[in-house]
Here is the input.
Amino acid sequence: MRYNEKELQALSRQPAEMAAELGMRGPKKGSVLKRRLVKLVVNFLFYFRTDEAEPVGALLLERCRVIREEPSAFSISFIEDPERKYHFECSSEEQCQEWIEALRRASYEFMRRSLVFYRNEIRKVTGKVRAGLQRAGAGLQVAEAVLQSWLMATHPPHRTPWSSSAYPRRPGSS
Amino acid sequence: MALGSPPGPAIAAMKLNERSLAFYATCNAPVDNAGFLYKKGGRHAAYHRRWFVLRGNMLFYFEDAASREPVGVIILEGCTVELVEAAEEFAFAVRFAGTRARTYVLAAESQAAMEGWVKALSRASFDYLRLVVRELEQQLAAVRGGGGMALPQPQSLPLPPSLPSAPAPVPFLPSAPAPVPALPLPRRPSALPPKENGCAVWSTEATFRPGPEPPPPPPRRRASAPHGALDVAPFARLHECYGQEIRALRGQWLSSRVQP
Here is the structure.
């Protein structure tokens, strides 16, 4: 599959949510543990040789499972092949826990679910307590407007999202 | 990599979990936009008609709508989307910053389709979604704390059931109880510019922290407003505090988009 490698490399240089030197072992049988700088940027996990500026590789973190393997080690695997694991060894249980939590939240799909969650929670509260919220009205309207257009994009009415009728016309579009 | 070094074996291309990427392209996660677009092969190349699928911050393209595997993907993080003057009608461009960065010129088949794509692609970054979710998180905290009632304790967000660990993807329906985040979002490091020489920003110790303070459990439980005593602040002041934070965040995001 072709991909824009330069842009991915540029992304690897952006500020990271988390970065640390960890032991890393690839999924192939007989892989050796290597020291790697591991860096989490948006929904990608980059790994570098410790003295190099360009990453050895990247893992897209969608549809993945992060499991604690040992008190201070975790693995990442992907839904389509759960036995194929990337192993990481941390220097402490605490560091391991931090990474597991961060990686589980590092997907676009998780962020999407958070959006719906907060929106529903806000609806629950604003549904009940309208009177006291007039001052918050403007701010909420902005958030709701953003949400509405977002939700229209992410909740197509059809089960097969590629069918042409799955995308409702936006108000104002021809 | 250094200039003047003797020619040796070529540096291996960056590895990427392409199989997983291909799976993500064709799984049942929500699709943010899909349709035929013409894609220019290169600077002087012809346009090819491809089936494009936007999911998250990935723009996949297939030979046609029935293909099982994408021909390729454009990773959209950090891009800007613009209309362009081109021989093709309904053309627009996906641009990336940096020297030698490629610009993808795409053309839709109608004005409406073009507008739809430009809108969808402009909002496709993970960063943008994170900003929206943060705004909502703050709004939720604000409306929970408001209504003229006194705030006895800082409200922590309820902890919904954690994500199921079963590998089967959960079909995502708006009305179903969706798997939800167990913890509020981690703070993004606000002042970590990439180093000049492009070397990765890293730390050997576990002293690296995503924010100025050690990660508390959970961050939003402490008052996130700039001043202390939230318990007795009137709602209007609370709202103003959160509003300022949102404006600042938005300003940051907008200006970060402009930088090369």
Summary: Chain A has a mean pLDDT of 83. The two ends of chain A are 35 Å apart (CA to CA).
